[in-house]
């Protein structure tokens, strides 16, 4: 299998991606007090220090402020090799990036995390960064593990009716509510994901699914390795000596509020560790 890594042309409405040559999507300065803050920095002469602090955190929106001092001493001679005190810094603190993964919380740190993740997955699929190039010839699976149905819900159907019915269908649930919905819901409709009948919907089981979803994923990976060991006719305890399975997963909320998992998995090849 060969994977084409040629990037698609980026148009005005196309996401530039997370490759190393993709431009940063730096958000606009939307705070109303931004001009006043910048004017104050210019007036008190701290603009250069402000930009240096901003650059040291990679433009983090909510940097962590550390205060304190360190002294490095040669234990055999007692000689002081170096000292550092945050009070000597322009703002009296050491700024470090928050590292938040959510773009809504910190666009800069989330982009760093996304690019690191992209680099790891890209290397695992195509090779590079100490990963041998032959991995691109291995089979690749894209797996979606989703929750079962706990009852019909409203949803956005891309311009179609939510749950259309035949003209002669008057079916209602045991609580007397219609089992159909002829509304064309927009993407931002608050009804999306809500049950057609709150009494019929198995909300308790949905909550249990949410609670146990991480454990279900763990059990899935255990069962997967056991199945592979059985297929390769090797003991499960020694599977790592013959092959390994590499995967990257993302937990995502569906419109109905339930978690499901997307995973890219590299199945093992007998005699090869990937």
What can be said about this structure in brief?
It holds the Pfam family RepSA. The chain has 4 helices and 7 strands, in the order ααββββαβαββ. With 274 residues, the chain is α+β, with helices and mostly antiparallel strands.
Topology, please?
Layout: H1 34-44, H2 47-56, E1 64-66, E2 69-73, E3 80-85, E4 94-96, H3 107-126, E5 141-145, H4 203-232, E6 246-253, E7 259-266
Antiparallel strand pairs: 1-4, 2-3, 5-7, 6-7
Region (Disordered): 1-22, 154-173
Biased composition (Basic residues): 154-165
InterPro entries: RepSA
Question: Describe it for me?
Answer:
- The model is unreliable at 1-5 and 270-274 (pLDDT under 50).
- The longest helix is centred in the last third of the chain and has 30 residues, at 203-232.
- It is extended, with a radius of gyration of 27 Å.
- It has helices spanning 34-44, 47-56, 107-126, 203-232; strands at 64-66, 69-73, 80-85, 94-96, 141-145, 246-253, 259-266.
- The strands form three sheets. It has a three-stranded antiparallel β-sheet, with helices on both faces.
- 26% of the residues lie in helices and 14% in strands.
- Among the domains are: 138-151 and 202-274, no CATH class; 154-200, no CATH class.
- It is of the alpha+beta class and 274 residues long.
Our measurement of the CA-to-CA distance between the termini, rounded to an integer number of angstroms, reads 15 Å
Enumerate the spans where pLDDT stays under 50 for 5 or more consecutive residues. Answer: 1-5, 270-274
Overall geometric form? extended
Number of strands: 7
Rg from C-alpha positions? 27 Å
Q: In which order are the strands of the major sheet placed?
A: 5-7-6
* Helical run tally: 4
The helix-strand sequence is HHEEEEHEHEE
Q: What number is the mean pLDDT? A: 84
Helix and strand content put the structural class at alpha+beta
The helicity comes to 25-40%
Q: Report strand %.
A: 5-15%
In terms of quaternary structure, what is this? single chain
Major sheet characteristics: 3 strands, antiparallel
Pfam families: RepSA
Organism: Janibacter indicus
Protein name: Replication initiation protein
InterPro entries: RepSA
């Amino acid at each position: 299998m060969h994977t084409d890594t040629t990037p698609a042309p980026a148009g005005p409405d196309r996401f530039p991606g997370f490759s190393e040559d993709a431009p940063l999507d730096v958000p606009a300065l939307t705070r109303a007090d931004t001009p006043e803050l910048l004017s104050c920095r210019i007036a008190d002469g701290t603009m250069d220090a402000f930009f240096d602090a901003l650059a040291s955190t990679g433009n983090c929106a909510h940097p962590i402020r550390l205060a304190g001092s360190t002294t490095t001493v040669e234990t055999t001679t007692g000689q002081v090799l170096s000292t550092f005190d945050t009070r000597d810094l322009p703002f009296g603190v050491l700024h470090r990036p928050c590292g938040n993964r959510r773009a809504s919380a910190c666009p800069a740190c989330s982009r760093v995390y996304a690019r690191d993740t992209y680099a790891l997955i890209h290397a695992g699929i195509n090779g590079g960064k100490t990963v041998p190039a032959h991995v691109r010839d291995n089979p690749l699976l894209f797996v979606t593990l989703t929750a079962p149905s706990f009852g019909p819900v409203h949803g956005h159907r891309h311009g179609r009716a939510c749950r259309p019915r035949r003209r002669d269908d008057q079916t209602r649930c045991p609580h007397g509510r219609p089992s159909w919905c002829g509304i064309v819901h927009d993407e931002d409709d608050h009804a999306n994901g809500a049950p057609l009948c709150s009494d019929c919907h198995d909300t308790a089981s949905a909550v249990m699914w949410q609670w146990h979803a991480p454990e279900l994923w763990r059990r899935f990976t255990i069962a997967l390795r056991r199945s592979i060991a059985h297929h390769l006719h090797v003991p499960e305890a020694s599977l790592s000596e013959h092959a390994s399975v590499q995967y990257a997963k993302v937990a995502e909320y569906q419109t109905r509020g339930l978690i499901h998992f997307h995973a890219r998995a590299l199945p093992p090849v007998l005699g090869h560790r990937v």
